[in-house]
């Protein structure tokens, strides 16, 4: 009998405890329920439970806007598009001023490829919060998706005025700079001084015309050179076609009949990939035809971080006995838009992108080169772009004989 009474008491305690726990659950505040819903969504990815908790919170506080926005997001993440729209449309009747509402609703329509409604929603949000970084970025993505690259560019420029260190904004801006329709002409003068290797300095004047198209830019260049006290001309054609959101290419070709000053023919191609975490990778080749063909294979990896861009590039040139190698590390600090930055370059070897490329031709001695340089680019009223570059080379052009060389370049481009 005593044992029976004891078991009955234990059972009573369990029932009372369960009842107390149930009572505690029923008295949770809307804020506490909101917090539990967020934990279920973010920590456990349990969207159905998070939805149930959010609905419970809204029963207590029907006008709690943050919870309604979160519920709309939960429906979006659960691919319940119609339910999400109902939540956001109900909220619209209250004329919300919260930028997060316009971001959540605009993102839903953008992900559903409803770009016109998405843009209208985001523009309303920007009237409420004109400096919202998230809304400015989303607006640029919507405009980019509809191939309105100039408007997307302006939205990104506005974003970077608000926060110059916005990594994704910087990355997006640079990714569309070759897609903006329009024309650009440029002129660049390059001067190179040699201490020992050559008696006369080199001069190169480059004239360029660039045409932006919806699939990428096309550039035509004419290079006029004075090297070894002789004159020469080279013509080049380059293109940067975009293949998808992830991939784009570089294609280039050139011709010159000025033997020894330029390669007779040059070609090149690279495939670029925009990778997660603001990385960019490239792989490709360059071919130079002097008396014989020189084939060079290139690869690079780049990374955007706030206002900085880092790029490590190599050129590998197979030979009869070994593989010549060139490595260059480039760092840029962006001070404004895509054409406003300070650059630092450190590297070894000679690359086919340099005006010294003809030093690669039939060299009886394997050139050993170190280089470092500074690059300053700035724009005035976005249409006028200036560049100043100075590079120092230390080159062992024959055994135990080194030369100090200075390369200075100034340029101007005008967009119209």
Automatic annotation (TrEMBL):
Record Pfam families: TPR_19, YaiO
SUPFAM superfamilies from the UniProt entry: TPR-like
Segments forming domain YaiO beta-barrel: 183-354
Superkingdom, natural source: Bacteria
NCBIfam families hit by this protein: OMP_YaiO_dom
Name of the protein described by the UniProt record: YaiO family outer membrane beta-barrel protein
Annotated organism of origin: Sphingobacterium humi
Native organism taxonomy: Bacteria, Pseudomonadati, Bacteroidota, Sphingobacteriia, Sphingobacteriales
Name of the coding gene: yaiO
